[in-house]
Amino acid sequence: MDHDNIHGTGLVLDGVGMLFRGPSGSGKSLLALEFLRDAGRYPGGAYLVSDDRVELSVRGGELFMHAPATIRGLIELRGYGILERPSLDTAKLQLVFDFVSDLPRLTEESERSIEIAGVTLNYCQLPMRADTDVNHQRILVEEALANYARDAARIIRA
Description:
With 158 residues, this protein is α+β, with helices and mostly antiparallel strands. Helices cover 22% and strands 41% of the residues.
């Protein structure tokens, strides 16, 4: 895979690269803006990689996100316009979130990973913005982030 351009929003939160995927209007950009606004709450900060379109590439068995040059550092706030935010050109992708209209009540451990371009990544579903409030979405993202950090710490200790 050289560069695959997909619909989504890439973000680095507390040093972990994440991708929000979902249909237009599902809340990807708004949730990313919430984390960017509160970057000081996270020791590793929060940085935009790309909004609306994210380029993906595989290097050394790892998946990376890149911002297309024309939209680097830009994110849309629906109802207002295009905003400029602190950004990174490239980031390793570690967590994938899909916005869904029918969020399951419980998920099995086996449902918390996804394969993209031959790379297995941590995975979580999020409710659409129209179906919930930002607090529910934030809690799910922060729990997935904490779970990823625990898994990474176990691998380092092993």
